[in-house]
Amino acid sequence: MRTYDGNGEGMGMEICAGNGSKIDVEAVKAVVKEAGKLFRDREAAGHTKTKGVADYVTEVDFAVQQFIYGKLQELYPEVQFMGEEKSNEEIDRAGLVWVLDPVDGTTNLIHDYRNSAVSLAFMDGGRIVMGIVYNPYADEMFWAAQGQGCYLNGRRVRVSSAEKMGESLISIGTSPYYKAMAEENFPVFQAIFMDCQDIRRTGSAALDLANAACGRIEGYFERGLKLWDFAAGMLLVREAGGLVLDYRGADAGTGNVSDIVAGNGRIPRILVEEYLGRV
Q1: Which of the four pLDDT bands, split at 50, 70 and 90, describes residue 51?
Q2: pLDDT band at 49 (very low <50, low <70, confident <90, very high)
Q3: Which of 80, 109, 147, 213 is buried most, with the most CB atoms less than 10 Å from its CB?
Q4: Of 157, 189, 215, which residue sits at a domain end?
Q5: What is the pTM of this model?
Q6: Which of 133, 157, 181 is the last residue of a domain?
Q7: How far apart are CA 90 and CA 75, in angstroms?
Q8: Does residue 92 have a pLDDT over 60?
Q9: pLDDT of the residue at 42
Q10: Backbone angles phi, psi at 31, to 5 degrees
Q11: Is 176 exposed, middle or buried (0-12, 13-18, 19+ CB in 10 A)?
Q12: The domain containing residue 122 runs over which residues?
């Protein structure tokens, strides 16, 4: 990778992929930011389809995905595209792959809860080497490249320094697609609530991971996340000095579905060792 300027804006930064492709970070960020304008279409947000239990898709999801897919195909036709709103059966993970969640937090979007994001990652040979999470409501652009740190609107960010649950704000994910897990999950939520400062439930895995990366929360966990939910955010957290683990304490990988525990350099291990390892 080429170096970038000190304020993190990525002037001239390119990610050099294994096959010789060069990804212009600023160009990709511009595509994502432009796509974020589509979140404003409340009429399209109201046109919904049900994919499963508590699993919805709107015309905004499709519009954002189609817009980003089209722009990235123009810029990088050699890169495969994995999106939430397509089958993805043809994807060869040994190659170059975009991984997109066009609207992470679709239920929030439907209700105009204004806590949704575009999440885009770039994978090279199964490794996540670039991640972007954009919240169009707050106009917050989080991005990271492997080995280059994590940035929020041009300012380098890092995870918090908290070491104890009593000084930590923890975000939980309720795994709404898997409501049968509630009997196992909610006693864990209660135990963590009793020991930490407080808990939060945002409804967007991508934004929870971004918030962990910039130190707003100390930990986040959720079962059954899809790769497009956490791929970009995982790199943000790691590049900000944090941890992204599974429920057994191993470094989380890039499987299709994963249980994710993320946060600063200490709290995720406490969550695993004292609360989640037995789930």
Answers
A1: low
A2: low
A3: 213
A4: 157
A5: 0.92
A6: 157
A7: 20
A8: yes
A9: 78
A10: -65, -45
A11: middle
A12: 14-157
Pair 192, 97 in one domain: no
Domain co-membership, 118 together with 253:
no
If one counts every other C-beta atom within 10 angstroms of the C-beta of residue 206, the result is 33
Residue 207 CB neighbour total at 10 angstroms: 27
Q: Which residue has the tokens 């899809």?
A: 226
Within-domain flag for 60? yes
pLDDT at 177: 82
Average of pLDDT values for 150-159? 97
Length of the chain: 279
